[in-house]
Design brief:
The protein is an alpha/beta fold and about 400 residues long. The chain is built from eight helices and 20 strands. A hairpin with a 2-residue loop joins strand 6 and strand 7 (about 80-90). It is globular, with a radius of gyration of 22 Å.
Length: about 400
Amino acid sequence: MSISFHTGKMTNGMRLSVHEEMNVTLNIKIGDDEVSFTDKVLQPNAETLLKNTFEFPSATAYTLENPNLYMMETRLVSDNRVVDDLIDRVGFREIKVSGKDILFNGEKVVIKGVNRHEDYAEFGCAIPIEAMYRDIEIIKSLGANCVRTSHYPNDERFLDLCDENGILVWEESHARGLNEEQMRHKNFEKQSLDCIREMIENHINHPSIYVWGILNECVSNTEFGRSCYAKQFELIRSLDSSRPVTFASLEAHIGSDMCLDLVDIVSFNIYPRWYHDTPVKDSLTHLKKSINDTGGAGKPLLISEIGAGAIYGHRSNNHEKWTEEYQQLALSEQVTSILSDEDLSGVIIWQYADCRVDNGWFHGRPKSQNNKGLVDIYRREKLAYHTVKEIFHAN
């Protein structure tokens, strides 16, 4: 079942399959209002799509300041008997792209976000909801309004918390850093499309999700890669046309990316002042020019990753790399430069919290961790956290 909500309006599309012909009525209750699909005939062993638009003039819009949620109860009735049901929470809101702007309920929104892995020092990836809520509290205190689920769909409970707290979510299907040989693997296409289908069918009703993402830092600069991106975006749009789509390209593909025309929002991961010492404004100028020359002109542009590493507690007045002071200095320049650039729609910092990585990264990841977090694996705040907090709250 998939349902998308706009302010005061619901477009319902429910996919049903039965083993024998069945006359049904679909009743949908949202708050105190009820709507129905009546006297529908479902054919056996075939998918039937029920779709209509209903007005809810008394509905209160879901906003980041007032994340109003409604309980939705859906029941499929045949011969006066309930044969299936779905209970979910929903919100009424609208996401659109207009020129270079991302619009939330018709108003421009500037993304101030963090990338977050489902990883926690004490719990690994089996995170209890209390620890998830602690993350929500820290992220909100930071002044962030967005979380990117890098690089896989997230736990339903975390998405529920984002819904409740008015935090926008870029949800992403599972794949990162794949080369063309890996993407030509016999199982890649099916697994990728299955992941997208499961992600959207299970999470479409979360009003906090404002964009679907795919294929972080993969081969969007080759013809074969483009065919993979195009097929995945086609599937996403067939399942949910109410949200924009994007992917995070990488710095090495600036000027050669072949997929920017496929997206609604252009997104790039760049690391000036970390992997190279280019001034941030110079990197942004180069990026914007190349996007205009490679299919991304006139679209919103997000910096989907930027940051610098620091070992918690490692301090030095010399501001050398891996110190908290250097990370603080780099992020100050990075975030200030991005949020002051009117051509950009915002920034999603890499990353919220330090996380573990496999041993294959050991040579470039001290303690086998990605240490670019604003907080460490125990959620202890680094100096950069406070600097970013000041900048986010000032913008």
